[in-house]
Design goal:
The chain is α/β, with parallel strands linked by helices. It folds into 2 domains: about 270 residues, Aldehyde Dehydrogenase, Chain A, domain 1; about 180 residues, Aldehyde Dehydrogenase, Chain A, domain 2, CATH 3.40.309.10. It has 16 helices and 23 strands. Strands 15-16-17-14-13-19-20 form a 7-stranded mixed β-sheet, with helices on both faces. The chain has a 6-stranded mixed β-sheet with strand order 10-9-8-11-12-22, sandwiched between helices. Strands 1-5-4 form a 3-stranded mixed β-sheet, covered by helices on one side. Strand 4 and strand 5 form a beta hairpin. The protein is globular.
Length: about 500
């Protein structure tokens, strides 16, 4: 049995824990690895190494940091296939989807290569007579990230490349369901020349999470997961005087207007609702049919959902893979059962799918509900599986009201040919990320990712300019100098020393 350990101070570290978690191949249902679930002492050990490493790493010039990060980018590209297969083997998503998620993570690394530009401060000459003032951004110290199972590469890479580029050191606590990719990413960073102790991976469950929240030497915590846990992280990290960004759940709506390109909207919804088996915080799980187009939309969707090719992630013909664990599979099936009980019309039922040779895998087919009402649990709660609910509304204003009334405000989109509708939607919707004829409006690396309402606890979004602000603190200096003797002349071309 493969044993997954921690990665601390540039090497694999077993730690002090005797507790282990099970890691499965979701396609076969077989356990393939064990992961050591760390203790408070393991976390403290990682923090102590990161704290020591910070003293030197924070003094490395941004340009020198960028060169290491650029080398890291090259190594990720060189090991693309290995990293992608690690994601597939433990999460289950299909190969091309896993590769795409790794690419989105790589784009953060590419953005971090420009850190010398992003860390530049502001300068004002003569704010008073012979007085100058300037600002600079300096690193915080040891930072930590707690990441979910659905993106074992991309979400960690939203965090640690930016934190490290800014001069911090980092402790990553990946999901115990699929931790291997995080370990490999850390090893590759070391191979790129990152000093020991700058990036550490501590596997674990609630014990490690609580240790992160209470450790006095950890200055900032980043989190992605469900809203109840995000709220817990936010409250407890803030109580312990840490900077915190905690991204929570979602119930993303896609508004389908009568004037839209229906085929484009349906294709967009298929990818957004059923890609990665719906295990995305940006999955479009609600289609809002405006006016009288509900019947046409459901008819077109049902045909495509029924034809959805479900299979193991490494099968090139697969469009959707399994769910991550048997427990999660049963949870999603339970939501489908609940939807039927609540009175929604189950147009396509994917609960009883069986794949030859993969009978024990954690598979469910695509599910499609019609006539879903806003008081139903399947509408209000995040299912995190391949379940799409169609809600019918009278007009565009009702669609906006429906979305704005929901407790989540992560992502949303609208399909329309009307520029006024698109502009009004973008302006009035109370959601953090908006797409106009775009099904999954995830911002690119040099913009920032984050929702509104109960989808985000904290003030700053992930990566991009907001990421730089989160992982640095602002310092402003005001100075006045007496007149004095200048230095001797230098005749050598000035260079960075």
């Amino acid at each position: 049995m493969n044993l997954i350990q921690h990665y601390i101070n540039g090497k694999i570290y077993k730690g002090s824990s005797s507790r282990k978690g099970k890691v499965f191949n979701p396609a076969t249902g077989a356990q393939e690895s064990e992961v050591i679930l760390g203790t408070k002492s393991d976390l403290d050990h990682a923090v102590e190494n990161a704290k020591q490493a910070f003293e030197k790493w924070s003094q490395v010039t941004p340009l020198q940091r960028a060169r290491i990060i650029f080398k890291y980018k090259e190594l990720i590209e060189k090991n693309y296939d290995e990293l992608t297969k690690l994601i597939v083997s433990e999460h289950g998503k299909v190969y091309e989807d896993a590769k795409g998620s790794l690419t989105r993570g790589l784009e953060i690394v590419e953005f971090a290569c420009g850190i010398p530009q992003m860390l530049k401060g502001e300068f004002t000459e003569n704010v008073g007579t012979n007085i100058d003032s300037w600002s600079m951004r300096q690193p915080l110290g040891v930072c930590a990230g707690i990441t979910p199972f659905n993106f074992p590469a991309m979400v960690p890479m939203w965090m640690f490349p930016m934190a490290i580029a800014c001069g911090n050191t980092f402790i990553l606590k990946p999901s115990e369901k699929d931790p291997s990719c995080s370990i490999r990413l850390a090893q590759l960073f070391s191979e790129a020349g990152l000093p020991d102790g700058v990036l550490n991976v501590v596997n674990g469950d609630k014990e490690v999470v609580d240790s992160i929240l209470t450790n006095k030497d950890i200055k900032a915590v980043s989190f992605v997961g469900s809203t109840p846990i995000a709220k817990y992280i936010y409250e407890n990290a803030a109580k312990n005087e840490k900077r915190v960004q905690a991204l929570g759940g979602a119930k993303n709506h896609c508004v389908v207007m009568p004037d839209c390109d229906m085929d484009q909207a349906v294709n967009g919804l298929m990818g957004a609702a059923y890609g990665s088996a719906g295990e995305r915080c940006m999955a479009q799980s609600v289609a809002v049919a405006v006016g009288g187009i509900g019947d046409k939309l459901v008819e077109k969707l049902s045909k495509k959902v029924e034809a959805l090719k479900v299979g193991p992630g490494l099968d090139k013909n697969s469009e959707m893979g399994p769910l991550v664990t048997k427990e999660h599979l049963e949870k999603v099936k339970g939501y489908v059962d609940l939807g039927v009980k609540e009175g929604a019309k189950l147009v396509v039922d994917g609960r009883n799918i069986k794949l030859q040779g993969y009978e024990n895998g954690f598979f469910i087919g695509g599910c499609l509900f019609d006539n879903v009402k806003k008081n139903m649990r399947i509408y209000n709660e995040e299912i995190f599986g391949p379940v799409l609910s169609v809600v019918r509304v009278k007009d565009f204003n009702d669609a906006i009201q429906l979305i704005n009334d929901h407790e989540f405000g992560n992502g949303t989109s609208v399909y329309t040919r009307d520029g006024d509708v698109g502009r009004t939607f973008a302006n009035k919707i109370k959601v953090g990320m908006v797409g106009i004829n775009i099904p999954i409006p995830v911002p690119v690396a040099f913009h920032s990712f984050g929702g509104w309402k109960r989808s985000l606890f904290g003030d700053l979004h992930m990566h991009g300019p907001e990421g730089v602000k989160f992982y640095t603190k602002l310092k402003t200096i005001t100075s006045r100098w007496p007149s004095g003797i200048g230095s001797d002349p230098e005749f050598v071309m000035p260079t960075m020393k």
